[in-house]
Design goal:
Oligomer: single chain
Strand content: under 5%
Pfam families: PPR (PF01535), PPR_2 (PF13041)
Family: Belongs to the PPR family. P subfamily.
CATH topology of one domain: Serine Threonine Protein Phosphatase 5, Tetratricopeptide repeat
Keywords: Repeat
Protein name: Pentatricopeptide repeat-containing protein
Number of strands: 0
CATH class of one domain: Mainly Alpha
């Protein structure tokens, strides 16, 4: 780009970062993100969500959580998509352990701390992951916490019944 006297923008960086992470070079992608700051560019939601997804895909959910913290410094407020991506990575990508399931429940705390409410997709992903790991008591807590007497309460319990039946826990359903 220097040859043509062009300056890269956030979109150009997002394309290159995506190509780099597809090759599994997450640390190099983080270096590119830091490089953006040197030329007074800031990562946007696309930059963050793609990196969060890739960190989760390779089991580096702590790094993904760190990215969420750093978003605020770049005037990029984590939203339901960000938290759903984190939940997807923590619960669905195969890095599920009891500790990770409980970490996923902590995502609700992070959302509330940042002034965000989880959307239905986020809650359903969390319920699904917790249910698959047999954390039914935790599912009850999540449902009670997020529905607080709303019409969603029955819908989430209906989902729980379906999920329990799918995994063969008819008695619990």
């Amino acid at each position: 780009m220097k040859e043509f006297n062009c300056r890269p923008d956030t979109l150009a960086y997002n394309v290159v970062i995506s190509l780099v992470v597809e090759k599994g070079k997450l640390d190099e992608a983080m270096g590119l993100m830091k490089e953006m700051g040197l030329i007074v560019l800031y990562p946007d939601m696309i930059t963050y969500v793609s990196l969060i997804k890739w960190f989760c895909d390779v089991g580096r959910s702590e790094d993904a959580c760190q990215l969420i913290k750093s978003m605020k410094g770049h005037r990029c407020v984590p939203n339901a998509v960000v938290y759903s991506t984190l939940l997807d990575g923590v619960l669905i990508k195969g890095f599920v352990e009891k500790e990770r399931v409980m970490q996923a429940s902590g995502v609700l705390d992070r959302m509330e701390d940042s002034g965000r409410q989880p959307n239905r997709v986020t809650i359903m992903a969390l319920i699904d992951g917790l249910c698959k790991e047999g954390c039914v008591e935790e599912v009850h807590k999540v449902i009670d916490r997020v529905s607080r007497g709303s019409e969603q309460h029955g819908k989430f319990y209906g989902l729980l019944v379906v999920l329990l039946c799918r995994i063969g826990k008819i008695k619990e359903a």
